[in-house]
């Protein structure tokens, strides 16, 4: 039963080891037929170009392996193809460091907030290429702000406050930047039923009792300008309009503001869009109510600064808006009334780099709202990248203010950034395999809401350098049936074999199989390989260190004798199932040392003159001696005393050596037992053993045995409890003393009481006697007067 369990556990360990090797060695699992395939399997894989590297029976794919394994198998490092990735900075201008009010005023395109700006990465499959991206928020950076306002009837009082917004906002923004421009646009709703009334009178004046302008979808009233007074003038000329439903057509207006950059006048600076409304919004699909089914095309349709296709295209979707706002680096500020705060908060969560502010009923707080929202948006930087090529992944690690380090999705952003602060991102780009075309690709990384970006050109290593030196139709490949490259033949289509010597149609024929049978046996390639073109190609093992070889795959390097659970005892190599021992070793498992240095004692004698040296181990002629050089005598007098202190400190933590126990007493293996009966007995042991009984400083006895087993390991079995002499039982003694004192006290009290009773009785009897003998005379006190007065009623006749 024990043998069966050992075999099962051994098989399980071997199975787990093989599986881990199989999963771990991606190079062998790739089964690469040429160098390019090999290096794409992983960054640890190399290809041996040595023409004489392969042994008989090994397949071409065994040229592909991990570097250490290839060198161990005899491939020189200079013959291994192992190209590595690299990076090159093409534009690396340092970030701008200037203060507000500087004499030299820079153009927006001359200000740098991100470094580097352009680089090239050469990617090897599985090998990440990392670089640092620096971001510094520049001081006095130009700002373009476009104010987009809902001019439906409910915003009438708000329009009055916005009419003076231009100059007031200019004064506030001068505290942040000296280069500020402002623009204005307005929106109402699509000009079709049921969003507005299409009766002629309502089209001219949709309001009842007020003079309103005709409904419109979106108007660009004022292109971005640095003239605040012009803003006030043009906005002052605007009039309220009206519509029928509560949600407004603001999404149409946002889309046009985002994509009509030329008409709006956007520069490559910080772009802010303030969206002011007191209502909800229509989005994609709502246009069907008005018979509009064409999806929004995301293009500019402004004619004379008026959106002309509102009746033709549906409202844009939220995702469409997110894409266009991001593409055009526009940060959105939603200035909405408190009633619609929850709606726009949810919208903000879907639109990166956007903010929501609560607009007062008449928009009187709009300037403070814009300033607060701008500070909130500009204090956070979030990196995004363009679409990645197939098989390419990117990872971010941020190092923000105060040493905060984040990875994963949080590694894309840093918060609480003030003007002049510098933060760093480590960006790692990895490719798995090679894209189908293998051509260079370009990706871009930029901070959301900023126009600056990093352009990264990705070049892919799809083949080895030796591929360029390949000889097409080489004579080395069976009369030109393949290309000789990287030390091996890459066969033309329809040809197989190590030298492309066979046609794929003739691979498995009876004639070719015959040459793959050893001694005319029935086994093809010893059942350890496949017959290809009359030549055995041996199978691969799950463990990359184990290989079949030989003309008929009859040899292997893993079925040799083992010693100490090591193949060939760890002192030789296995070739064709026979151990080839290192020098100074012999035996079928290379487990017999020819050297006698391990048998020499400190006195330079072989086995202390008490034995012979066999295979590097002393065989003691006197059975009472043991140890590597027959120096130990467990049953000799003095053994117990010699080891007493070490046994005491290790078993009980006491004794003279308790402070140096770990250093001085680790030379034996300690085994604790419960009682003396559990100690091993000399009669049941195959090696000499000494029973010991020693006393400690507290007069306690402890029992142990000392022996040196057949493996020359010192063993001590010790009883884990001390045998101490039993002292007096204090509690009964104390209880007895207390009880004795109490009893004596009670006895004394009783005696005293008895004596007092006897004394009292004697005294009483004496008193009685004297009383009886006493004589008394009777006399009357002359002074005494009776307290009783007797009065006789004269009328009383005694009746």
Automatic annotation (TrEMBL):
Residues 26-76 form the PSI domain. InterPro entries: EGF_extracell (IPR013111), EGF_integrin_1 (IPR040622), EGF_integrin_2 (IPR057073), Integrin_bsu (IPR015812), Integrin_bsu_cyt_dom (IPR014836), Integrin_bsu_tail (IPR012896), Integrin_bsu_tail_dom_sf (IPR036349), Integrin_bsu_VWA (IPR002369). One of its GO terms (cellular component) is integrin complex. Residues 1-18 form the signal peptide. It holds the Pfam family Integrin_B_tail. Residues 753-799 form the Integrin beta subunit cytoplasmic domain. GO terms for molecular function: C-X3-C chemokine binding; collagen binding involved in cell-matrix adhesion; fibronectin binding; integrin binding; laminin binding; metal ion binding; protein kinase binding. Disulfide bonds join 27-464, 35-45, 38-75, 48-64, 207-212, 260-300, 400-414, 434-692, 462-466, 477-489, 486-525, 491-500, 502-516, 531-536, 533-568, 538-553, 555-560, 574-579, 576-607, 581-590, 592-599, 613-618, 615-661, 620-630, 633-636, 640-649, 646-724, 665-700. Belongs to the integrin beta chain family. This is Integrin beta.
């Amino acid at each position: 039963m024990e043998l069966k369990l050992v075999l099962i556990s051994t098989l399980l360990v071997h199975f787990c080891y093989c599986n881990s090797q199989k999963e771990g060695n991606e190079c062998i699992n790739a089964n690469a037929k040429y160098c390019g395939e090999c290096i794409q399997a992983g960054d640890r894989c190399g290809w041996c170009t040595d023409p004489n590297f392969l042994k008989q029976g090994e397949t071409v794919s065994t040229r592909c392996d991990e570097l250490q394994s290839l060198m161990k198998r005899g491939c020189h490092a200079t013959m291994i193809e192992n190209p590595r990735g690299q990076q090159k900075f093409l534009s690396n201008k340092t970030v701008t460091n200037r203060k507000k009010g500087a004499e030299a005023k820079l153009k927006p395109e001359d200000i740098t907030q991100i470094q580097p700006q352009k680089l090239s990465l050469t990617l090897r499959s599985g090998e990440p290429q990392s670089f640092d991206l620096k971001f510094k928020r520049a001081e006095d950076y130009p700002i373009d702000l476009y104010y987009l306002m809902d001019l439906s009837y409910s915003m009438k009082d708000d329009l009055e406050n916005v009419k003076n917004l231009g100059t007031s906002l200019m004064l506030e923004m001068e505290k942040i930047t000296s280069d500020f421009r402002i623009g204005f646009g307005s929106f109402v709703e699509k000009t079709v039923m049921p969003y507005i009334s299409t009766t002629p009178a309502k089209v001219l004046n949709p309001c009842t009792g007020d003079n309103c302008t005709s409904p419109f979808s979106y108007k660009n009233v004022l292109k971005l300008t640095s003239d605040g007074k012009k803003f006030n003038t043009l906005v002052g000329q605007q009039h309220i309009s009206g519509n029928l439903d509560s949600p407004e057509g603001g999404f149409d207006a946002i889309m046009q503001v985002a994509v009509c950059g030329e008409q709006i006048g956007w520069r490559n600076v910080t772009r802010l869009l303030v969206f002011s409304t007191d209502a909800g919004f229509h989005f994609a699909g709502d246009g069907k109510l008005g018979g509009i089914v064409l999806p929004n095309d995301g293009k500019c349709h402004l004619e004379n600064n008026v959106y002309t296709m509102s009746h033709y295209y549906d409202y844009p979707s939220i995702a469409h808006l997110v894409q266009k706002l991001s593409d055009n680096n526009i940060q959105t500020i939603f200035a909405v009334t408190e009633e619609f705060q929850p709606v726009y908060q949810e919208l903000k969560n879907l639109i990166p780099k956007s903010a929501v502010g609560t607009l007062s009923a008449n928009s009187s707080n709009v300037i403070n709202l814009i300033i607060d929202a701008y500070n909130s948006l500009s204090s956070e930087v979030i990196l995004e990248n363009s679409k990645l090529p197939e098989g390419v992944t990117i990872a971010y690690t941020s190092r923000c203010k105060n040493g905060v380090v984040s990875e994963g999705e949080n590694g894309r952003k840093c918060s609480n950034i003030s003007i002049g602060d510098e933060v760093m991102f480590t960006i790692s780009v990895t490719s798995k395999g090679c894209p189908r075309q293998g051509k260079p690709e370009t990706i871009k990384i930029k901070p959301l809401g900023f126009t600056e970006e990093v352009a990264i050109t990705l070049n892919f290593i799809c083949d080895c350098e030796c591929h360029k030196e390949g000889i097409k139709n080489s004579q080395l490949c069976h009369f030109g049936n393949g290309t000789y490259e990287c030390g091996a033949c890459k066969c033309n289509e329809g040809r197989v074999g190590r030298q492309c010597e066979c046609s794929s149609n003739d691979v498995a024929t009876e004639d070719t199989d015959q040459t793959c049978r050893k001694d005319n046996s029935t086994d093809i390639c010893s059942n350890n390989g496949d017959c290809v073109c009359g030549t055995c190609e041996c199978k691969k093992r799950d463990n990359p260190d184990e290989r079949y070889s030989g003309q008929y795959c009859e040899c292997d390097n893993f079925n040799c004798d083992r010693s100490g659970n090591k193949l060939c005892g760890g002192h030789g190599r296995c070739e064709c199932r026979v151990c080839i021992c290192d020098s100074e070793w012999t035996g079928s498992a290379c487990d017999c040392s020819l050297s006698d240095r391990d048998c020499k004692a400190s006195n330079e004698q072989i086995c202390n003159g008490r034995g012979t040296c066999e295979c590097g181990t002393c065989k003691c002629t006197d059975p009472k001696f043991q140890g590597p050089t027959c120096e130990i005598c467990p049953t000799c007098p003095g053994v117990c005393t010699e080891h007493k202190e070490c046994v005491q400190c290790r078993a009980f933590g006491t004794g003279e050596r308790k402070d140096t126990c770990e250093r001085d007493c680790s030379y034996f293996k300690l085994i604790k037992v419960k009682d003396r009966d559990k100690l091993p007995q000399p009669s049941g042991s195959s090696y000499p053993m000494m029973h010991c009984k020693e006393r400690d400083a507290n007069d306690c006895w402890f029992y142990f045995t000392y022996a040196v087993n057949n493996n020359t390991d010192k063993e001590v079995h010790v009883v884990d409890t001390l045998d101490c002499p039993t002292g007096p039982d204090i509690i009964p003694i104390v209880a007895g003393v207390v009880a004795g004192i109490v009893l004596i006290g009670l006895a004394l009290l009783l005696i005293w009481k008895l004596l007092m009773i006897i004394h009292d009785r004697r005294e009483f009897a004496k008193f009685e006697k004297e009383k009886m003998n006493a004589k008394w005379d009777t006399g009357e006190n002359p002074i005494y007067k009776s307290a009783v007065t007797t009065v006789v009623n004269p009328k009383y006749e005694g009746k």
